[in-house]
Design a protein that fits this description.
It is a single chain. By secondary structure, the chain is mostly helical. Helix content is 71%, strand content 0%. The protein is built from eight helices and no strands. The protein has helices at 4-13, 15-42, 51-74, 88-94, 101-105, 112-140, 147-210, 214-233. Helix 7 crosses helix 8. The longest helix has 64 residues, at 147-210. The two termini are 34 Å apart.
Length: 262
Amino acid sequence: MLSAKSLFQEILDNDESFRLFCSIAASGESQGGWENGRIAVLVPPTERDLAPKISRHGADEDKHGRIFNALLKKRGLQPVPVPSDTDYTMLLERHGIGLAHEKLKGETPLTVQDVVTYLAHSRVTEQRASEQMDLLRRHFADHPDLGRAVRMISNDEDNHLAYCHEELLRFAAAGHGRAIQRTLRECALAEIRVYRDVSLAVMAHMGRVLGWPRAKSAVLTAGIHAVYAYERLGGWRRMVSLRMPERRDALGGPATAAPEFA
């Protein structure tokens, strides 16, 4: 019987599929770390109080990338190049979601609207990250190799999501409510398409590595399309709602250190 746990266990048990999984995850986290680091540098003067939180967000993402690379190293594996069709972060940018990398590579300060766009994009993508890590935590929190990593990353993603809610509500109260809702909707509808496409690509690559029969690949493909249909019909709305989180000032302190993997 196919289940999320059995599927991931199969990927975990095979060196080549595990190497691809960790390489994709590490690349995405490292890219997110760079983006947040540049945004922290370019924050407009009126929003400088946000810079330490954005830096913390970036430091967390960098840490996650190091954790996935450390998991590879523990098994004596090296990262592999990330297939372009599985590069979630870059595909989002190509769809015009978030802040363009050309802008982040420059030295011109961002505008307040840029910061709102960044936070709306983060609120959507952190929803996805929080849900994915919650799934892994439910199934693998006690795993001897993955447990500590899963618990730490999941907690960080929950903090990131709480931070986005709190800051977007602050901007909404300052008069940016319509722009926030418009940007959230645009981001969510684009994200669910990119997530579908990336999921299909990852499953295709994993299927080739693990030698999945056509029937199994067909079932997984149908499942991915079913998730997209649900999200397109209304599931995306969970990504655009805003509520004051229980975790207040979730990124108000320094980033925690990555665990050691012997």
